[in-house]
Every structure is written in C-alpha cells, then in structure tokens.
Amino acid sequence: MANQNNVTVSIDGAWKENKLSLMNTWRAAVGWIIKDNGVVIDRGKAPVFAYTPTQTEAMAALMAIKKSKP
Questions:
Q1: Which of 17, 60, 66, 69 could join 13 via S-S bond, C-beta 3.0 to 4.6 A?
Q2: pLDDT given for residue 50 in this prediction
Q3: What is the structure's pLDDT at 11?
Q4: 22-61, pLDDT tens digit by residue?
Q5: HSE toward the beta carbon, residue 70, CA cutoff 13 A
C-alpha cells in the first residue's frame, strides 16, 4: 500500500472592533498549525489589519495555505 499523507490545517482569527481606530494599529490576529499524520510541520501567528471577523478568518486561511506550499 502506498504511503498516505493525512495533512490537517487548523486556523483561528481574533478580531476586536476598535472604536478609537488609529490608522497604524492592528486590531486582529491570526494563527495556524499544519500537521502531517499528526506531526506538527508548521505553526505561526501574526497581527493583521482587518475590518471584519470574516476577513480575519479568511486571512488566517490564506496565510496557512501560503505556508503549506512546498
């Protein structure tokens, strides 16, 4: 039987509305973890600029996908 990879990607985004919005402050953060057959092969986190919770989650997915490329 061929060797099978079971890659999982978990993401999370945290967003908070900033009513005193300053242009140079971040109001969201993203994190991701990538596992291959249960073994962590990459993880990361980053502050991001985002206007909505949905945008924050999408940015987390995008960053994880970019990191998962060989």
A1: 60
A2: 86
A3: 96
A4: 655 668 999 999 999 999 999 999 999 888 899 999 999 9
A5: 2
Distance CA 24, CA 34 (A): 30
Domain spans in the chain, listed from the N-terminal domain onward? 7-68
DSSP string, the chain: ------EEEEEEEEE---TT--TT---EEEEEEEEETTEEEEEEEEEE--SSHHHHHHHHHHHHHHHH--
Burial of residue 39 (number of CB atoms within 10 Å: 0-12, 13-18, 19+): exposed
